[in-house]
Fold each of these.
Amino acid sequence: MRTEGTVTPDSPCEATATNAVDVLVMRQTIALVLPAEDELPPGLDVGTLTETLRGHMELIVPEVETKALALHKEDIPRYCALACVSEANGKLRARAGQGAYAALVFARKLARSLATLCDHYETLTSMPICLACDRMIHRRSESMPYDRVSNFGGAVTSHLHAACEPRTSYLTRAPRPG
C-alpha cells in the first residue's frame, strides 16, 4: 500500500530512501495536472498543484544541472539537459496570467517541463526504465534486458519488468506482408 512520498517494497517502481529526488511522486503530481480533460478533477486546487510542481522543479533542476555539467562539453545529453534546465528556470520565474483558465494552462506548462526534467534525471542517473510500462525498474525487481536496433544504427539495450514481458509482443512483431 502506498503512503505519501513512499513506495512499498513490492512495487516495481520503488524509490531509493537516499534519493532526494522522488521521480515517482513527481510523475504522480504531473498526472494530476495533465489529464485529457480541460478541467482538473473535482477537489483539486490549481494553485496548490502549481506550488507543488514548483517545489518539485526546485528540487530536480539543480540535480539535473549538476549531473549534466559532469558530462563532457560536447556530449549531446549534456546539451539537451542544460537546455531543459534553462527552460525550467524561465518557467520558475514566470507567473500565471489572470483567471482560472490561465492558471490551469500555466500549471500544465510547469507539468510538461517537470516531466522533461524527470526524463533527463532518469537518463543522467542511469535509472533503468521499463520499455513497456515506462516506470523505473528497482534493483530488486525481476527484470530482463531487451536488445533492439536503434533508429540511428547500432544496438540499444533497454530493460523490461519481468511482469511486463508479455505486453511487449508489439515490440517484436514482424511487419505483415503487404
Amino acid sequence: MDTNKFVNRHVGIQEKDLPEMLQAVDAESLDELINQTIPADIRLKQPLDLPEPMTEREFAEHIAELASKNEIFTSYIGMGWYDTVCPAPIMRNVFENPAWYTSYTPYQAEVSQGRLEALFNFQTVICELTGMPLTNCSLLDEATAAAETATMFYNARSRAQIKGGANILFVDEKVFPSTLAVLRTRMIPQGIEIITGDYKTFPYTDKVFGAIVQYPNADGSIEDYKEFIERANVSGIKVGVAADIMSLVLLTPPGEWGADAVFGSTQRFGTPMFYGGPSAAYLAAKSEYKRTIPGRIIGISKDRYGKLAYRLALQTREQHIKREKATSNICTAQALLATMAGFYAVYHGAEGLKNIAARIHSTAGFLAGELFKLGYKQVNENFFDTLKIELPAYVSIDTLREIALECKVNLRYFDCGCVGISIDETTQPEDVGVLLYIFAGAAGKDYMLKDTILTQTYFDNKFARTSDFLRYDVFNKYHTETELMRYIKRLERKDISLAHSMISLGSCTMKLNAASEMLPLSRPEFQNIHPYAPEEQVEGYTELIENLCSYLAVITGLPGISLQPNSGAAGEYTGLRVIREYLNSIGEGHRNIVLLPASAHGTNPASAVQAGYTPVIVSCDEKGNVDMNDFRRKAEENKGNLAACMITYPSTHGIFEIDIVEMCQIVHACGGQLYMDGANMNAQVGLTNPGTIGADVCHLNLHKTFASPHGGGGPGVGPICVAQHLIPFLPSHPVNFGNEMNTVSAAPYGSAGILPITYAYIRLLGTEGLEMATKIAILNANYLAAKLKDSYGIVYTGMSGRVGHELILECRKIKEATGITEADIAKRLMDFGYHAPTLSFPVHGTLMVEPTESESLEELNRFVEVMECIWKEVKEVESGIASKEDNVLINAPHPEYEVCADEWKHSYPRSKAAYPLEFLNENKFWINVARIDNAYGDRNLVDSQCGCIL
C-alpha cells in the first residue's frame, strides 16, 4: 500500500481484500462487477479530465496558498453577518471534533441523546430570547427562514381569506435585500404577490394575509411595531419579524408585543462568517403552528421505564413522509451550527450575553457621539449596533472609502450616499479609534481617542427588555472552560458517530470526512470573511470557487454551476426554478406537470410542489424498476403540460435503471426537461454522469458524495449543475451580482465555508481516486447483499441481479412470522454499537443499507456478523426458543442503567442483552436510555426548558 496516496487512506478496501470480496459477489474482477451493474450505454468513454491527485502534504500547502490570497479586513458591513468570537472550547471540542460533525440526523433517538440535548438547549435559547413558545432546531439561513415563515402564514389562512383569494404578502422596505430577493423567488410558485413599502403607511386590504418586518431594520433603526401588529391582528393578518438574535438580549422580544413568528440568524452566537455560511437560522412561532412549522423540533418524551429522554417530535411532519402534501421541502438544516450557538449561550449564560450585547451597543453609541463631534449625522434615532451616517457636504465618500481601505476596514455604502457601520463583539476601543481616524481624515480633521467607552443605553427605554431569560441550570453551570469541556464530553459520549462505527444508512452516504479535508475550515482566512467583502479581498475564495465549479462541471458533464443552494432540498428547488424560468423564456410557462417515479428521492415531491408544479407519480414494477409502460403513458397524457421529470439515479431502490436514456428521450420529446436528483452521485462519479445520460439539470449533495460532514443534521450544500441552455437562469444575488433572479440563499455563494472540503476531496483523489471510490462503494454494497441475501433477502436488484451502492433488506416477512418489526431490528443494532440503517424508507417494513467506500472489510464483516446474530435471534423467537413477549429484540436497546441494575426481570441473561458477540467485550457503546415512547412525546410536546406542554 502506497501510504502517500490519499485514495488509500480514504478507501477502506485494500488490494489484498479484493479476491475474497469478488469471490463472494461471484465476479471475476472489479470491472466485471461494474459492467454488470451500470448500463453500458451510459458509461463514460474517457476518464474525467481533472488535475492529478495531490498528497495530503501537497494539498495542505496548496490550500494555505489559496487562503493567503484572502485578505482579512475588519468588516462593519453587517446586513446579517457579523464578526464573532467562537469560544475556543467550542471550536476545539465541537466544530473540530468528528464525534460531533460526523453524526447523523437524530432519527434514532436512543443513540442521539447528546446532540438532541444540545439542540434542545438551542431551542430554549431561541424561545427565551424571542418570547415565543415554539421553535424548530434550525433552518438554513435568515432569508430562507423568511420564506418558510411566509409559506407557513399562507397555509394558515382563514377560510374567509382562502375564499376571498388573499394572496398578498407585505414586506417592509427596510428588510435586508437578500431576504427580499429570496422571498420573491420563493413566493412566485405559490401564487403569492409581494408588495413592499413603509410599514407605517401601508393600507391593509382583505387580500393581505401576512407581513414581514425587520427588528432592528436593515438601516439599523429600532422601530416600534406594536401599533402595526395591532392593526394587522384586527385584519386577521399574520406578522413575522426578522430579529437580530443578539439585540434581543437588550430589546423587548417580538413575542411580547404580539408577533406571530420571529425568525433570523444565530451566526453572531459564535459561528464565523465563512464568506456567507454555514450558520444556523431560527424560526419561532406561536404554539398553533406546531404541526406546520417547517424543520425539525426536538421534544421531550420518556423511555419504557419512565426516564426522560429527548427525541425528534412530530416526525410525521417530515417532508419525505408527507411527500407532495408537505408544506415545506426543508430536509438538511444547520444542526452542527445550532449546536455551537447553543453551547455559546451555555458558556456565556444570561449575564455573559448581556455583557456582550451591552458592549456592542455602548460602542455603537459612543461612536455615534464622537462622529457627531466630527460633523457627521447619525440618522437612526434608536439603534442597537448599526449606525447610518450622513456625510457633511464637504466630505467625499470616495475619499472616505479610500482611507477606510488603506486602514483595512470595510464599511457599508448606501445608495443614498450614507455610510453604515455595524459594531460586533470583536470591536475593541482601538478599532473605534481607527474608525474615528478614518472619518476624521475624510473630514480633514485630526482625531485621537481619549475617552473611555462607558456602558450606556442609547435607545428609548420603551424598547428595553424587562423579562428574564436563560434562568435554567444548564445556562448557569458551565461558565468555566473545564466545566464546559466536561459537559460537551458528557453529551458526546451519548451519541454514535462515524468515530464509533459504520453508519450504514442508505441514501445518506455516511463516508469518511477526512481530517485533511476538514482542517482548512479552521483557517481564519476562510472563517473571517464577510460575504459582501470587495472582490479584491477574496481572491483565494474566488479561485477556489472557480476551480471547484470547473471540476463539478467535468464530473457531472453539465457546464453551468451554481453553488448558492445551501442544502440538497434547496438544490432541488433551485433546479426546478431554473427550469421554470427557461420555460417562461421560450413561451412554455404554462407547463406545470412533473413526472416523479415512485423510486425518486423522498424530498422530490415536496420540492416540486414548493416550486409550483403538480407531481404525477409513475409506478414501479415488482423489481423496483420504473414501469416504462406507465412512464410512457403518463408522459404522453401530459405532453402539452409536461415541465420536467425528476429522476434519482441510481434510484432510491438502490438500482441502476437500464431504461434511463429512454426516459430522458421520452421527456425531451414531450417538451420537458430532465431533472436528476444527485443524492446518489456516489455511484456515478467517474463511471457515468448526468450529462452523458441526458439530464438537463442535477443537484449535488456535497454532504453525501463529496465528503462534507452531516453534523447531526446539517450543514449541507446542494449546488446545481445545468446544461448550456439553462445557464442564463442560474441564481443571481441582489448585492454581489446586481440582480435578484432566482436568488435562493442569503449569501451569494450559499454556505461557502463548506466548499474547501469538497475542493479538497476532488484534489486529493483525482480522476483515478474518484473512480476507485465509486467502484468500491458499489463493491461494498454488493458484498453485503451477497452476505445477507440468504437470511434477510434483498428487496430489489437490477436486471443483472446487482445492487448499486446501497441495498434494501427485506424485513416484512420477519414481521409476518414472528411479530418482530424492522424497528425492533434497528433498535437491537444499538446494543452492538451500530446506528440503524434507514428505517422503512423508501419501502415500508424494510431497512436500507449503504456501506460507502470508506469502510474496511473488517468493518463490513463485523456488520454482517451482527446482522446474522440478530437473524439468529429472530429465528429463536420464530421457533419458540425465545419468548415472543420478552426477547432481546422487542426490548432493545438495553441501556446501561438497566443492565447494571440489581434486579433483572427478563427471561434471557444480561450477557445476551449487552454482550452478544465477542468484539463487544473490547469496545462496548453504552446506551443512555431504553426504547423511547414516541407517541407520548407527540401528545405532550415540550420543545424548550420552559417546560410548557404545547
